Amino acid sequence: MEVKIGVQNANRELVLDTNDSGDDIEKAVTAALNGEAPLVLTDNKGRRVLVPAAKLAYVEIGSPTSGQVGFRS
């Protein structure tokens, strides 16, 4: 699943590919916003991304990324 995260006062968005389902990502975002805890997601390579809930501008949850061919932009 591709996830794009907009962070306040940052010029670029964070983009990561994760094995988590869209529902799991949505629950993590909702929990972060309700509890003022950071949003924590893990990408396909096992790296963790932490974003302070107060700095989230938007989170875009895309379609699964499996089966892509060619160059990505």
Give a verbal description of the structure.
With about 70 residues, the chain is an alpha+beta fold. It has one domain. About 20% of the residues lie in helices and about 35% in strands. The chain has one helix and five strands; from the N terminus they run E-E-H-E-E-E. It has a three-stranded antiparallel beta sheet, with helices on one face. Strand 3 (about 40) and strand 4 form a beta hairpin. The two termini are about 15 Å apart. The mean pLDDT is about 90.
Summarize the entry for a quick read.
The protein is of the alpha+beta class and 73 residues long.
Give a topology summary.
Elements: E1 2-7, E2 14-17, H1 22-35, E3 39-42, E4 48-51, E5 56-61
What structural keywords apply?
single chain; 73 residues; alpha+beta; three-stranded antiparallel sheet; two-stranded antiparallel sheet; globular
Alpha-carbon Rg, integer: 12 Å
Q: What number of structural domains do the residues give?
A: 1
Class inferred from helices and paired strands: alpha+beta
Strand tally is: 5
Would you identify the regions where 5 or more consecutive residues have pLDDT less than 50? none
Average pLDDT level:
88
Helix fraction, binned, reads: 10-25%
Helix segment count? 1
Give the spatial strand order of the biggest sheet.
2-1-5
Per DSSP, what share of the residues sits in E-state strands of 2 or more residues? 25-35%
Distance between the termini: 16 Å
Largest sheet: 3 strands, antiparallel
Order of helices and strands: EEHEEE
Q: Based on Cα principal axes, name the global outline.
A: globular
